[in-house]
Amino acid sequence: MRKISLVIIITASLFGASCKKYLNINTNPNSPTVTNPQLELPLAIVNAASLTSGMNDYGGQTVGYSANAGGYGGFGASWTYDYPPSQGEGFWDAGYQTLENFQYIINATQGDNTNGNYNGAAKIMKAYIFQMLVDEFGDIPFSEALQGGANFRPKYDSASTIYPALASMIDSGIAAINAASSANPIVAQSDPLFQGNMGMWKQFGNSLKLRLIIRASAAVTFPNMTFSSDGFLQQDAIVNPGYALAQVGSGTQVSPSWNAWVTSYSGSKSNSAWVPATFVYGFYDGTKLSDPGRGAAIYFGWPKDSINQLGATPPANTLTSPAVAGAWYSGTGSGTGLGNAIGIMKGPNMGEPLMLMAESDFLQSEADVRGILSQNAQTDFNNGIAASFNYLEWGPGLKSWNEGAITGGAISDAAAYQAANSTSYLANFSLATTTAQKTEAIITQKYIALNFIHGEEAWSEYRRTGYPVTSPLVINNPYGSMASTQSQATRPDHLPTRLPYPASEAATNASNVPQGISIYTTTIFWAH
């Protein structure tokens, strides 16, 4: 199975020979090897994409996207949720290391309108990474973090105070972009996310701020719940610095998710220990909803995949991942001939999405329901489904935001899907008559859209809302429960609530690490 570590995260972000200047990440921004923000920004963005890919894997195992295959052992805490301090250490270390790079850019450009675009982009990305850490660990070092040698033992800030501060950080980033002079624009070569399109950066910032507000405004007060006039994401936010199939020694690297779940650059199979979870499969095979279009786009063996419930131990050599590729690859071929597919695992040159347009649409739909926005909830809901089809139906070579425009085929496929499920309010929003039903429909469709793309976000949304509904009956209920059959969690849903603090913090910052934390009962401040 995939075990994430700092080494894996960082090495997974290597890419094309033409971009070798981005291959090494700084560990000390007070003595950087990269001396200007133009070189630092793409490196930090690529490492953020690798971190997101690893977070997806963890989230997918927890929220009912993936389960163990047969014939393998050593799943340990993935089955029991008895997480040791090392469970999230790679995320913590890589998260803060990447934050150091964004902080270096901010320090180098603060108050300098010539480099205002770099300052703004770095602040938006800093908020993106910090939110991921808060969502998994709760209280974390924030106000005293990222000071290098000036403070080796930063205090822990309350998670409930960090969230509003992140929203303000995004506002500051958008303001910096607006104030930036035209003397030093971000060029495409320095921006593997939006190729220097600052309007898209601001839409990304608005979408991230909306995510913060949707997740936490029921628990904390945000001083500013308005958004810039730039609007929200109109395309998927995809990082692609030039991932490609490569020969050994060339310096080129396949995308992190492809490397983790399909093949390495040499064509060697990456992972056979995981198969789709029965829980999520039910949203495709007709048990809960019927969705053969997206099912076929996502899964290698559709509609006869090997599926399982996490923790179940089938006999050896049964329920195995497909022999020629990973279960989430829908194309053909073998070895280095794999690729050029639609779905989730598209090819070695596929981009890594930081945020799907579908998620942004569903956030807007929930904001409409809650009165945060004054748009049309049903329209935004329908747009989210269409955007999900659109992302899956595009091939692997997405490098820039303008390659992902919604196609007529995706719109018609989404409409056909909703027509086929017209009697369920989970797909037909007009049937959702209460706020609870509307919220369940939105979060369930978001869960489907994020399937094995952003498992960490689906996991956070489940913890916040309780959707999609999972049964307290675990044994012999694989379609009904996303929990492991070997769970040691004490909650009614038999799921954990968070990751433990890393052992490294206990060793180096013990006086500040929160005490009495339980991975089964201590919830993040916005969770139900």
Which labels suit this protein?
6 strands; 528 residues; globular; two-stranded antiparallel ribbon
How is this structure best described in words?
This protein is mainly α. The protein has a single domain, classed as Serine Threonine Protein Phosphatase 5, Tetratricopeptide repeat (Alpha Horseshoe). It is built from 16 helices and six strands. The strands form three sheets. Strands 1-5 form a two-stranded antiparallel sheet. Strands 2-3 form a two-stranded antiparallel sheet. Helix 5 runs antiparallel to helix 6, helix 5 packs parallel to helix 7 and helix 12 packs across helix 13. The longest helix has 26 residues. The radius of gyration is 22 Å and the shape is globular.
The radius of gyration computed from the alpha-carbon positions, rounded to a whole number of angstroms, is 22 Å
CATH topology: Serine Threonine Protein Phosphatase 5, Tetratricopeptide repeat
How many domains comprise the coordinates? 1
Summed up, the helix count is 16
Q: Shape from CA axes?
A: globular
The number of distinct β-strands equals 6
Structural class: mainly alpha
Describe the secondary-structure layout.
Blueprint: H1 6-11, H2 37-62, E1 66-68, H3 77-80, H4 89-109, H5 116-137, E2 140-141, E3 156-157, H6 159-179, H7 198-216, E4 237-239, H8 256-261, E5 274-276, H9 278-281, H10 292-298, E6 352-355, H11 357-370, H12 377-393, H13 408-420, H14 435-449, H15 455-465, H16 503-508
Antiparallel strand pairs: 1-5, 2-3, 4-6
